[in-house]
Amino acid sequence: MNNNDKVAIMPCAGIGQIFGQITREVGYNLVDDLYPENTVLVCPPALAVDIQEDIDFINEYPVLVLNGCKDRCATKLILQKGGQVEAEVYLPDILKKEKISLKDEKRGKLGEKSKLAIQKMTEDASMLVKNLLNR
């Protein structure tokens, strides 16, 4: 049963892709900087191999998913592990809305366009965290 004193943040794994790096940075912004007392970060690899702490996170708290691409693997993993997605921020929607192109951006050294995408995605995700906490 979900309680609303915290929100579980589930970034996309996106290993080897810039999308995963961006969603992870957004997750860190939310958990480490903006809402350290009210969020927990779900680790996709840990959840995939049934680490109990991450299973508990998705069962105890409302889940905000940060999906990086059309595959929406973060959502799929939450559902596969028996969790429920309460809210989602979808990076391609942010890129389209803000007219940001990630062409030529590298995941190893994030450029200005990636940093702008992180900022905008963090803003959208932050509003959703506030809504989930205030239910």
Which terms summarize this structure?
four-stranded parallel beta sheet, 135 residues, single chain, 6 helices, alpha/beta, DGC, globular
Instruction: Give the ordered list of helices and strands.
Output: EHEHHEHEHH
Q: What is the residue-averaged pLDDT?
A: 94
**If you compute it from the alpha carbons, what radius of gyration comes out, rounded to the nearest whole angstrom?**
14 Å
State the shape: globular
User: What structural class results from the helix and strand content?
Assistant: alpha/beta
Beta fraction of the residues?
5-15%
Number of strands: 4
Q: Note the gap between the termini.
A: 14 Å
Number of helices: 6
Helical coverage, percent range: 40-55%
| Spans where pLDDT lies below 50 across 5 or more residues | none
Number of domains: 1
Largest sheet: 4 strands, parallel
Spatial strand sequence of the major β-sheet: 2-1-3-4
Organism: Thermoanaerobacterium aotearoense SCUT27
Protein name: DGC domain-containing protein
InterPro entries: DGC
Pfam families: DGC
